[in-house]
């Protein structure tokens, strides 16, 4: 993983007849995200094999900045 990558979380919840997954990846900066994902850093990168297992998925990656955290 590139320098500046801090970790990843995979969240799961049951929603009616489906199971929803949310992936959260932690980076030091948007520049680190760009180094990891490339020029199309706003495009969701989902392995083609995993795409076959999913009913649907987002094609756009949402990037947010942490303004407050009390994680230790």
Throw out a few tags for this protein.
17% helix, two-stranded antiparallel ribbon, 72 residues, alpha+beta, single chain, globular
Question: Can you describe what's shown?
Answer:
The chain has 72 residues and is of the alpha+beta class. The chain has a domain of 47 residues. The chain contains two helices and two strands. The protein has a two-stranded antiparallel ribbon. A hairpin with a 2-residue loop joins strand 1 and strand 2. The two termini are 22 Å apart.
Summarize the structure.
By secondary structure, the chain is of the alpha+beta class. 17% of the residues lie in helices and 29% in strands.
Determine the N-to-C terminus distance.
22 Å
Q: Spell the H/E element sequence.
A: EEHH
Unreliable residue runs: none
Number of strands: 2
Mean pLDDT: 93
Rounded to the nearest angstrom, the radius of gyration is 14 Å
Strand order of the largest sheet: 1-2
- How many helices? The count is 2
Give helix % range.
Answer: 10-25%
Derived from helix and strand composition plus strand pairing, the structural class reads alpha+beta
State the major sheet. Answer: 2 strands, antiparallel
| Shape field | globular
Our estimate of the beta-strand percent is 25-35%
Summarize the SSE layout with pairings.
Blueprint: E1 5-15, E2 18-27, H1 30-37, H2 48-51
Antiparallel strand pairs: 1-2
């Amino acid at each position: 993983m590139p320098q500046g990558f801090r970790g990843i979380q995979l969240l799961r919840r049951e929603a009616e007849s489906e199971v929803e997954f949310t992936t959260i990846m932690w980076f030091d900066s948007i520049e680190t995200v760009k180094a990891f994902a490339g020029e199309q850093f706003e495009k969701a990168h989902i392995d083609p094999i995993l795409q076959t297992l999913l009913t649907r998925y987002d094609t756009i990656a949402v990037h947010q900045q942490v303004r407050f955290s009390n994680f230790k």
